[in-house]
What does this fold into?
Amino acid sequence: MTQQKTNTPSTLHRDTLAVRAAVERSQYGENAEALYLTSGYVQPSAEASARRFAGEEDGYTYGRTGNPTVTSFEQRLAAMEGTEAAMATASGMAAIMLMCFSLLRSGDHVVFSQSMFGSTIKLIGTEFARFGVESTIVPQSDIDAWRAAVRPGTKLLFAETPTNPLTEVCDIAALADIAHSVGALLCVDNCFATPALQRPVTLGADIVMHSGTKFLDGQGRVMAGALCAPEALVREKFLPVQKNVGMVLSPFNAWVVLKGLETLSLRMQAQSAATLALARWLEQHPAVARVHYPGLDSHPQHALAMRQMSGVGGAVLSFDLKAADATQARARAFHVLDALQVLSLCTNLGDTKTLLSHPASTSHGKLTEAQRQAAGIGQGLIRVAVGLEHLDDLKADLARGLDTLS
It folds into this structure.
């Protein structure tokens, strides 16, 4: 994160910031943001070089500590999220790793949701536990459980809303109050909603985490991640660790996601509308036991989701198939997935192409059966990340498997 001036007023609407926020144009006056493919920078003088390496003067010194294209991505995402700054990383998990390395030490305590992404649960609950970081897992929507879990040594509350894959929603403002009551920070994973639908900092969150690999890119092309936070936190906590660890975002990937942000709002609105229609159709299918989607009236946190997510449910849903037991549920889920002819069997999400996955054997496959059951991840659960195909084609391809279940 290297500070470089932007000529974009912060008072602009989010959609305008999505296409305008960036570092100033070079002397060539390019309209599209430039892609700076360089690992090193020529310094204007030995004295200036010394000041820049000492952190006394802004300026690019090495590709691991900053790049103009990466800065443009950071500035644009921060503007859209409403934070002072952002730190780009190589992936979403790299962003979580950077946050934990920067904020936690042996003896510190973390509270996080049992419904979070499987790798996040493993990273905090297992990997960081080896270094003395303690953690407590709580039900996503149980505010009393979050409140009961915090203690004097709690440094971080981490929530994902909506969650992957059950689309559970948490009350961000309530969690912020709980975190701040013990001097802890609240980080919200905003991957599913994105700043186009939800801005956690306006509800009290301190840090917003992103996997730019998903909706921010929007076409499944590159890996990227980011942490959006106050400038002091980015400069004093995240930047020193990133300089030493090197979990940086490449300029090319930053440029791809930077351009993806320009169409984020349009994509999220169109894909969310299609997801709501598909969710309503799935609710009526005789082979489906339950549909998980915040936009449905049947969702337990529907009213909360509509307040926090600007009245839109997002572009991811999941559904449980009817089955007599776990073995049959898995077989029926595999049948539906193997019957696809148009949609993609793929564990990514946020693409213009609709992607389906079986969480119990993929994204949450490394969890124990007890952990999966606690998180509500059954063998008959299928996740659907809706793209931009015609709704009739989405229904027809899913019906190919659903209608032929024996």
Remarks:
- The first strand starts at residue 85 and ends at 89.
- Residues 14-261 form a domain with the Aspartate Aminotransferase; domain 2 fold (CATH 3.40.640.10).
- The chain is about 40% helix and 15% strand.
- The mean pLDDT is 95.
